[in-house]
Specification:
11 strands, 2 domains, 43% helix, Arc Repressor Mutant, subunit A, alpha+beta
Length: 224
């Protein structure tokens, strides 16, 4: 429990709580072990929970009408996720899926609300965070609807090189993972990456991606 309390002190929102409230949270937390590919909630569920990702990685994925999954964003250790159903009793708009063996701690709405009511400023911050998440999801979905695959892939790569001084980054996504994020197939993504390399835009190895021509990627990104 002490390890959980210590990690909660560094978590968004919970880090501002007094020690007594973090200890209460730790006592009420329900531990959950997830294996790669398992879901903690599904799109369409009414899921009135909050989770804290202790270790591992989770993807927030939306299922299209055609049955394809698209990754909207990922959760990393120390991230807190607030189930939408807590606030409106309606089904979840997407699913949470483990991409690594993961440990999470979960609180049901009835357990966590009394603590939140003692911190109204935190409720305001959560509202701001959820609004930001909604805007980010809209931008992603807008891009999926209006950008060709090469443009979507360019956007994703530029996000990986967010610091203009970055020249090389770790290649930590498989072709399948890249394809999921740009709503395409691994074969199409492979062909586009090969084209990028042939044109000298970037170089990929099994371990790294090295960017040679940032402006070439920027030119592929449609203005929003």
């Amino acid at each position: 429990m002490d390890d959980l309390i210590k990690k909660l002190s560094n978590a968004e929102f919970f880090g501002d709580f007094p020690e007594s409230d973090r200890r209460t949270l730790a006592e009420l937390a329900i531990p959950c072990q997830l294996r790669v590919g398992e879901y903690i909630c599904h799109q369409g569920d009414v899921w009135e929970s909050v989770i804290f990702l202790f270790e591992g990685n989770l993807d927030w994925v939306m299922l299209s009408v055609g049955g394809k999954e698209h990754v909207l964003f990922s959760l990393s250790p120390n991230d807190v996720f607030w189930g939408h159903s807590i606030f409106d009793d309606k089904p979840m708009p997407a699913s949470l899926k483990a991409t690594e063996n993961s440990t999470v701690y979960r609180w049901e709405r009835e357990a966590i609300l009394p603590i939140l009511y003692r911190h109204p400023e935190t409720l305001w911050e959560i509202a701001g965070m959820l609004t930001g998440t909604m805007r980010k999801a809209r931008e992603i979905i807008y891009g999926l609807a209006f950008q060709p695959v090469a443009g979507r892939l360019a956007t994703l790569l530029l996000d990986r090189f967010s610091d203009p001084d970055d020249i090389s980054v770790e290649r930590d996504l498989t072709l399948s993972a890249l394809a999921s994020r740009v709503a395409s197939s691994p074969e199409v993504v492979c062909r586009i990456l090969h084209q990028f390399q042939t044109e000298g835009v970037l170089k990929m190895t099994r371990a790294t991606i090295t960017l040679h021509d940032r402006s070439a990627l920027e030119n592929l990104v449609e203005p929003s």
